[in-house]
Specification:
This protein is α+β, with helices and mostly antiparallel strands and 151 residues long. It has two domains: 84 residues, Arc Repressor Mutant, subunit A (Orthogonal Bundle); 66 residues, no CATH class. The chain is built from four helices and nine strands. The strands form three sheets. Strands 1, 2, 3 and 4 form a four-stranded antiparallel β-sheet that branches. It has a three-stranded mixed β-sheet with strand order 5-6-9. It has a two-stranded antiparallel sheet with strand order 7-8.
């Protein structure tokens, strides 16, 4: 992880970070943080969100969607930024927040029905409504079955 040293912490960032922490769910969208959609305000928001991501407060998971994060320290002195909740639960929250109709993928459904003891490693979902975006974090990605999100 890259060390980020900012020579100032302005009140805008402090208020924004407090607003992020007050969000009840683990994910939030840019629209939840500001009502002012002027170009200047959006640029300020971009800079602040980028700084928070570098500092390890948040992780970008999709276009306009962020998840709360935390930093963990290893005994060898390294730091790693991780999601506060499991990737699967964050992905489910993101799909629901985006209004995408979905169900678990075939491997997860077979495991839940007891048809197999093979634990699914990849988180996959079947989409019932169109979604062209991606949901990813920490090197993991939601896999979409059925090619409904294809162009």
């Amino acid at each position: 992880m890259r060390q980020v040293n900012h020579h100032y912490q302005n009140t805008y960032r402090k208020k924004l970070l407090a607003k992020i922490e007050s969000v009840k769910t683990q994910i939030f969208s840019r629209n939840e943080l500001t009502r002012n959609h002027s170009n200047q305000e959006q640029l300020r928001l971009n800079r602040a969100l980028k700084t928070f991501a570098e500092q390890g407060h948040i992780i970008k998971i999709s276009h306009g969607l962020y998840a709360k994060a935390m930093a963990i320290d290893f005994p060898n002195g390294e730091k790693k930024i991780i999601l506060r909740d499991s990737f699967e639960s964050i992905a489910i929250l993101a799909l629901n927040k985006l209004g995408v109709q979905w169900e678990y993928g075939s491997a997860i459904q077979a495991y839940n029905r007891g048809e197999t003891t093979q634990v699914p490693v990849i988180f996959s979902v079947k989409l019932h409504s169109r979604f062209r975006g991606t949901i990813s974090a920490q090197g993991r990605k939601v896999i979409f079955e059925g090619r409904i999100n294809a162009r």
